[in-house]
Amino acid sequence: LGIRQSMSRKGDPYDNAVAENFFSCLKCECVHLRHFASRAHAMADVFAYIETFYNPVRPHSSIGWRPPDAFARACLSIPPPECDTTRYPAFLSVFSSFLLSTKPGRAHTAWVGDITYIPTGEGWLYCAVVKDLCTKQIVGYSFSDRIDTNLTLAALGMAVRRRKPLPGLIFHSDRGVQYAAYAYRQRLASL
User: Fold this and answer.
1) At what angle do helices 182-190 and 149-163 cross, to 10 degrees?
2) CA-CA distance, 83 to 80, in Å (whole number)?
3) Using an 8 Å Cβ cutoff, are 15 and 96 in contact?
4) Strands of 170-173's sheet in order across
5) Which residue from 121, 172, 115, 173 is spatially nearest to 144, judged by alpha carbons?
6) Torsion of CA 189, 112, 47, 176, to 10 degrees
7) CA-CA distances (angstroms) from residue 23 to 48, 87, 92, 100, 127?
8) Which of helix, strand or coil describes residue 47?
9) N or C: lower Cβ tally within 10 Å for the chain?
10) 3-class secondary structure, 85
11) pLDDT of residue 146
12) Which candidate, 102, 148, 108, 101, places its Cα nearest to that of 130?
């Protein structure tokens, strides 16, 4: 089976815009509104943001102003599950040619991942996410006080356990060492 890896073009920060968009929402709607005394408090709030607001409630313009969970249910109930990726051809052109050539139009066929940091009274809390390119759902995430490959592997592991990816899934990320690491590439190939 194996998950195919796609990475941003060298020096092109726009290649991973879908994941960056989530972090912008997270920081504006959750993180910047409060001060976290501890990493545990930050983890609890980000968990609540993803599980009780972002996926089930927050509307997204790119999927018809519907929440990702509702859109995913609608996609999965119509065989084959279709997603409108033609509305934003200029936006899609920022992806690597490998990812763009697949024209992800089905749920769970293309995921994107990235890492952000959250300031707390105990130091940085790092958060890695995996987002479905079609449904806009956050399908996996993890937290750590270290920004390493284990952080990204944990987010990928959650996504795989929760969504059971389809054969041929593409995982797109930036060129960070956490995603380029041998252990990460081996894990993708083994799925």
Assistant:
1) 10
2) 10
3) yes
4) 4-7, 170-173, 110-120, 123-132, 138-144
5) 115
6) 80
7) 15, 22, 18, 22, 10
8) helix
9) N
10) coil
11) 96
12) 108
First CA to last CA across the chain, in angstroms? 6
The values of phi and psi at residue 9, to 5°, are -70, 150
The encoded tokens of residue 123 equal: 């130091």
Residue corresponding to tokens 């040619």: 97
136 φ, ψ (degrees, to nearest 5): 70, 10
d(CA 8, CA 125): 24
| The residue type at 153 | L
Enter the tokens of residue 74.
């609608």
How many angstroms separate the CA atoms of 176 and 170, rounded?
A: 17
pTM to 2 decimal places: 0.83
Structure tokens at 81: 């599950």
Residue 77 pLDDT more than 70?
no
Both tokens assigned to 137: 């759902």
